[in-house]
Amino acid sequence: MTQASTQGTVYGVGLGPGSQDLMSVRADRLIRGATHIAYFRKKGRKGHARSIVEGLIAPGAIELPMEYPVTTEIPFEDPQYNALLSEFYSRCVTQLIEIANAGCNVVVLCEGDPFFYGSFMHLYTRLLNQVPVSVVPGITGMSAAWTATGQPITWGDDILTVLMGTLPEEMLAQHIADTDALVVMKIGRNLKKLRRALKQAGREDQAWLIEYAAMEQQRVLPLVEVGESVPYFSIVLIHGNGRRP
């Protein structure tokens, strides 16, 4: 037998926004049947992805927590930030390849969708052409966020823009002014900067903040009513108002 025929598969499994009943049937089946479960987490934490699947993992399954060497301790534009993460992802990939080469499948838990601003993408590009890799899509956090507001996010020909709160203030302001509908992720400590950008674009009063979309702690508020700090799992959005019959 060739190595390819005996290798296991690495599955990047999208968990959706945070509620088990919003996971796909395929994701549920793979997680329940997995012998090896890997997931990212901050050092000293259980990990949000792991928390989502509580009660689904089979007894005896081997868990492989992948602990980030750095999160917000140093600026992401610092060359050391990329160097540390690159080395970290390489170590994770080496471990996953070893398991797959032993003939075992590995499920990597991914919050939201694996191909949408997720850490799994950095594993995926390193795993390609080395072991079989399969990706299971998931509902994105932003989809849960706009659904939580009870309003459609786009109409007709509306242009939807997705931004990261980590972008420079002037760039944020320009994109906010130029788009119809808006989603901003990675709010956290970027809240003040984002507020200034929204005000500069003249759209502060249109913005909504959604905390913990689709989770038990979900909270939906106009941004102007929000305090000075917000949780990491927060999304700001502006609804489009385009063409309709």
Automatic annotation (TrEMBL):
Residues 9-221 form the Tetrapyrrole methylase domain. InterPro entries: 4pyrrol_Mease, 4pyrrol_Methylase_sf, 4pyrrole_Mease_sub1, 4pyrrole_Mease_sub2, CobI/CbiL, CobI/CbiL/CobIJ_dom, Uropor_MeTrfase_CS. CDD domains: Precorrin_2_C20_MT. Pfam families: TP_methylase. The keyword Cytoplasm does not apply. Its EC number is 2.1.1.130. Keywords: Cobalamin biosynthesis, Methyltransferase, S-adenosyl-L-methionine, Transferase. One of its GO terms (biological process) is methylation. Belongs to the precorrin methyltransferase family. PANTHER family: COBALT-PRECORRIN-2 C(20)-METHYLTRANSFERASE. This is Precorrin-2 C(20)-methyltransferase. It comes from Vreelandella nanhaiensis.
